[in-house]
Amino acid sequence: VAVGGNGAPLVCFADEKIFGKDKTPRAIQNLGGIANVTIVSPECETFAFDNGPANVLIDYFANKYFNLPYDKNGEISRKGVVNEYVLSELMSLPYFDMMPPKTTGRELFSYDFAEKIEQKYALAPEDMIATMTSFSARAISDSYKKFVLPKTSIKEIVLGGGGAYNSTLRQMISKEFNDKIIVKTHEDFGISNKFKDYIAMPKPNMYQSLHTTLIGSDGTPFEIQIRTYDMHKTAEYGIAAHWKYKETQNGIKSSENEEQKLAWLRQILEWQKDMSDGKEFLSNLKNDLDLFSENV
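Above: the chain sequence. Below: its structure as tokens.
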């Protein structure tokens, strides 16, 4: 943000380190709810932006029409017919002409947006999902033609995220480029397609960390955990976070009073960590409790 960006996408530094070593011009294309790309090429500086929707609209209609969380392997969209008129209308959204850096999300491609599409066009369920899948592929190719290919050639598109498992979406993306750009997935490089989710998408208890095992020079394996400082702080408060997570998993919703208790416990833990003087810590704790001030 400080240097003129929009604060997202968030994981482009990892893309550069992992995929930039052999100097092949690549587009590292994430297919989460929203599609975002990192361009890693010796022909230009690394840059990233959000292309448009990826799974968000597909998932919405899969759930609404078929009571499914997503279109597994693109099986539903494969049965449908893409409506080119609807597709061209959707591609007229102003966002697709905005110059990067840019970011978007569910504030634009929302459930309300999906409902308006349904009301206006009234497509058959399979056709709707096929059209939304094509919409995601077209938004990606359109953004490359406008903002990427004028700066650098692209030899490989490397797909990641949940959408990388959708074979229909993969095929549509490839056809958008007339099969002239090789389309791969993270798994072609020995990396899970959901690799970035471990960092970018926290668990329900807000725990975020990348765990890996390395082999030392003497052959001894050891584990390292990669986190930002804020991620580490959350992990340090694991007891409180784990407690809340387990209650939620068991169907018990935390009350506002319980939320306040958790916030207070986190504050106590932070004091304990930051204060080297035990007496100062106890004094702050006593004042915060404001109970039995002469006896505690």
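The beta strands are 26-31, 34-41, 44-53, 156-160, 182-185, 210-215, 221-226.
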